[in-house]
Amino acid sequence: MLEASSSTTELPAIPSKRYFTIGEVSELCEVKPHVLRYWEQEFPQLKPVKRRGNRRYYQRHDVLLIRQIRSLLYEQGFTIGGARQRLSGDGAKEDCNQSQQIVRQLRTELEELLLILKH
Questions:
Q1: pTM over cut 0.70
Q2: pLDDT in tens, 26-50
Q3: What is the CATH number of the domain that holds 17?
């Protein structure tokens, strides 16, 4: 059990880009592209922008949501239905977790900027 919870901290940092392809999101969240497409059908909150040829472009909030879904399913042991209910229902605890993740990401980016400015 301890190994599964530590994998969250090992996910790569989210680059400061506006849009991400499904391949990039797959690598950032360590989830296969076909799983991402399936989750789009199961979780109404997950709606990437679709452009010409039905190509998906995910935004930062989509990546954070996917990481949250991944945590619920793979680490906390929720079923798809349970995770869907958790995301749509009492999301106060999950919002807190998401906020903490955003703060950690921002801190990392600010530290990188500080290093660049020092040079």
A1: no
A2: 999 999 999 999 999 999 999 999 9
A3: 1.10.1660.10
CB–CB of 56/21 below 8 Å? Answer: yes
Q: Which domain holds residue 85?
A: 2-118
How many domains does the structure of the chain reveal? 1
Residues in Cβ contact with 29 at an 8 Å cutoff, skipping those fewer than 6 apart: 11, 36, 63, 66, 67, 70
Q: If you average pLDDT over every residue of the chain, what do you get?
A: 85
Measured over the CA atoms of residue 83, residue 84, residue 90 and residue 94, the dihedral's sign is positive
The two structure tokens encoding residue 96: 């807190």
CA–chain centroid gap for 70, Å, is 8
